Amino acid sequence: MYIHYQPIGYFHTPHKSVEGMPIQPSGARGCQGVIRVLPEFVEGLRDIAGFSHLIVLYHLHEIQGQDLTVLPFLDKRPHGIFATRSPKRPNPIGLSVMELHGVAGESLFLDNVDVLDGTPVIDIKPYVPDFDVWPADRVGWFEGKSGNAATHRSDDRFAARDKAGAELEQVES
Fold it and tell me: Counting C-beta atoms within 10 Å of the first and last residue's C-beta, which end of the chain has fewer, N or C?
């Protein structure tokens, strides 16, 4: 089976490099960015201004390859990729809940932006607490560590690398 998605827009953020950027929206408080929706999808923004928060799905375009076991940012032990939020996934899809501050034409103005500049947006959904908030009884290995995401910053551990281990230059297509 082949699954194909096309971008509906792109992020414009102050994060020009993966290294040093927030690893979760909780660490990006006050960091503003914009999603510019492509003209053919602007009609889909109708009524979105009525929501305070959005769930944004995006393609982690700087990630090359996958690892099924990773050393995540918030732990010193390796974990299976599906037990982490690390980006080097079989399908490099990111998800963030961001605060919506305004809409103007094709632009969504957001806060708590933890996404690299130029990242393609796959989908946008309204955040609805009655649907999206569930009390969690267990948080696995994140227990006692998840609060650290507010201050922890990304390093180059998931940067694209060639076989010799050197960072690859990313070419926009």
Answer: N
> With a threshold of 0.90, does the pTM exceed it?
no
Q: Which residue has the tokens 């690893």?
A: 23
Closest CA to 56 of 133, 122, 154, 150: 122
90 touches 66 (CB < 8 A): yes
Question: Of 15-24, 30-39, 72-81, 149-158, which range is least confident?
Answer: 149-158
Question: What are the start-end ranges of the H helices in 19-154?
Answer: 129-132
Bridge partners of 52? Answer: none
Which of 35-39, 73-77, 153-157, 165-169 shows the lowest per-residue confidence on average (mean pLDDT)?
A: 165-169
As a whole number of angstroms, the distance between CA 22 and CA 73 comes to: 11
Residue 38 CA to its chain's centroid (Å): 19
